[in-house]
Amino acid sequence: MAFRKRLNINSTAKEKEKARVIALEQVTTKRPNETVIYRRENGNATGVLMAVIDKPNHVSVRPVNPLDMMEWINSRPTAKENPYYLTKTLASISISIRDNIEDHVMSKLIDNLIKKYEYNIYINENISGEKLDKLALLLEKEENNTETYFNPLRYKSKFSWFNILYIIERMSYTGKLEYIPFLIELLQDANWPTFEYTVSLLVSYNKNDLLPYVERLLWRAYEDDDEMWISGIAILIEDKNIKKSDFENPKTYDLLKYRDFYRT
User: Does the global pTM surpass 0.70?
Assistant: First the structure.
């Protein structure tokens, strides 16, 4: 599949998965009504605690000074009202495990759904509205979708990109806001089958939410000498009825003269 070289979307799925594996290489401990997790690298950075992998999938947190261990153990009965200094240090680098588990479980759920053809956004061009609704609900809670689930390089054909647009438009307005720059990048080539639908989706945003991204990316298209992308953004500007006076920089609108085509 050929892509225009300026499509600024990178495939980092492997890196994200690697980060998840590293994140799981942590030690957990239970407290009343609370579960906490300790990052091994954070523990070693304190100077007074060290995290040691002592068993497969298990990490022990120990004092750097072995003489502190017995005092730390003996302080457990009063750890809440009078915590030992190592307890305070450990608490300062602890983070709630809840978010880590939820993120991992959510990604796993989405991955398992997409393995099914009826949910497979990468190859199925006829996913039902009901299933798209479900995917939108789940993906709105995920981060970095443009680098993972919405990465165009993962899709069998450009026609499958419609699934990205269908899912985004089903999200809450707040959830959709982060995708404005991504959608504007999908205007780089008017020959892409999703071009007109992308324009209509962008037009559905409030003008004030669009303007900063339209202005910034229009200047980037100009700096990249990308006349076709300027043309795509120009069509969005016309359809959204964005005026010269709407831009922060009065010279921004003048960049439209560098477009290389007009919609017929």
Answer: no
